[in-house]
Amino acid sequence: MPGTGPASNQSQRLALPSKGDVLCCGFLTHCMLVVVEDFPVQNGGAAIENLVDTVGDDAAIVARTLSGWNVRSTLVSNPVGDDHYGSKVLERLKNSGLDVGQIVSQGASTPLEIGIVARAGSRTYFQQREPEVLESLPVPSDDQLSDARMLYVDWYDGPNILGAMERAQAHGVPVFLNLESRYFDAPDLADLLRFTTACQVSLDEPDASGDPIAVVQDLTDAGISVVLVTMGARGCLVAQGDQRLQVRPLEVNVVDAYGAGAAFSAGMIYGFQAGWPLERGARFAAAYAGISCETAGHADVTTGDIEKVAEGLALERLV
Q1: If residue 152 lies in a helix (H) or strand (E), which one and from where to where?
Q2: How confident is the model at residue 225 (pLDDT cuts 50, 70, 90)?
Q3: d(Cα 60, Cα 65) in Å, to the nearest integer?
Q4: Where would a tag sit more exposed on the chain, N or C end, judged by fewer CB atoms within 10 A?
């Protein structure tokens, strides 16, 4: 059954084990962000306002963020190469406090991603995502899962994440699945949901559509314990049991919306591991996602500063 991770609808919070690591399983790249005022017309050009080296994809962003907040985290990913970009990836992961272990592959090339972000909030990207590298994505080991509080995965990381989710469920580890904008057409959606405890859906991307209330109800009916729907300028809708909460977004000067979804995921997981009620975690996640949009690349913000912002966000309880 889906959503079999430990949860309590009575307390409206997701109860995670008190100790252990948050496992973040996903593709790892070196990401170069190019910030421009606006996208040029075809065959035109634009001045670069900022150029930032960072780490992608979302699992790496979540692991790096949580580790920076002193939450024990492990990144389970493909290796990086012993090259220039690989050294940059290692430096950023280590600076966040992550144990990178045996993550370097001698003679391999580090996957590269180039993201173009415009100040209006638009973005596009170009990515090296060779099938053989994606297929090499490891599944968390039994030792890792026996000492885990939660597993984070993204829908786009290939069939290996199904194995990771199934093994996590067998170990009683709750699973956080980020479906992004693919709720209606994600491959193997039914299989993914079988092992999902908390599910995040985005309805603010160009290829996303749907009624957030209907999405929440469908996923709740499917047995998902916690449902999270991000809606960009409309904020977010979160649900657990019979509770439905909409948090209004932070008013921000958008510089870079790249990774805002991962920032929201990290914020929610932080609340889960802290034992917070759903309302507090949703405010925190929405606040950090908004703050992250004001910074090109990783937003290094303390949890205390985020909570101060979160307290001012408007929240509506829906019937």
Answers
A1: strand 148-154
A2: very high
A3: 8
A4: C
pTM (two decimals): 0.91
Report the side by side order of strands in the sheet with 29-36.
Answer: 48-56, 29-36, 112-118, 123-127
Instruction: Give the tokens for residue 302.
Output: 């303390």
SS3 content of the chain, % helix, strand, coil (to 5): 35, 25, 40
Structure tokens at 197: 């405890």
DSSP per-residue letters across the chain: --S-SS-BTTTTB----SSSEEEEE---EEEEEEEESSPPPTT----EEEEEEEEESHHHHHHHHHHHTT--EEEE---EESSHHHHHHHHHHHHTT----S-EETTPPPPEEEEEEETTS-EEEEE---HHHHHTPPPPPHHHHHTEEEEEEEGGG-THHHHHHHHHHHTT--EEEEEET-TTT-TTHHHHHHT-SEEEEE-SSTT----HHHHHHHHHHTT-SEEEEE-GGG-EEEEETTEEEEEPPPP---S--TTHHHHHHHHHHHHHHHT--HHHHHHHHHHHHHHHTTSSS-----HHHHHHHHTTS-EEE--
Confidence of residue 9 (pLDDT cuts 50, 70, 90): very low
**Superfamily in which the 21-27+58-79+139-317 domain is placed by CATH:** Ribokinase (3.40.1190.20)
How far apart CA 217 and CA 194 sit, in angstroms, is: 16
Query: What is the average per-residue pLDDT within 78-99?
Result: 90
d(CA 61, CA 264): 11
User: Is residue 301's pLDDT more than 60?
Assistant: yes
- Please state the rounded mean pLDDT for residues 177-192: 84
Radius of gyration of the chain (CA): 18
- What is the chain's length? 319
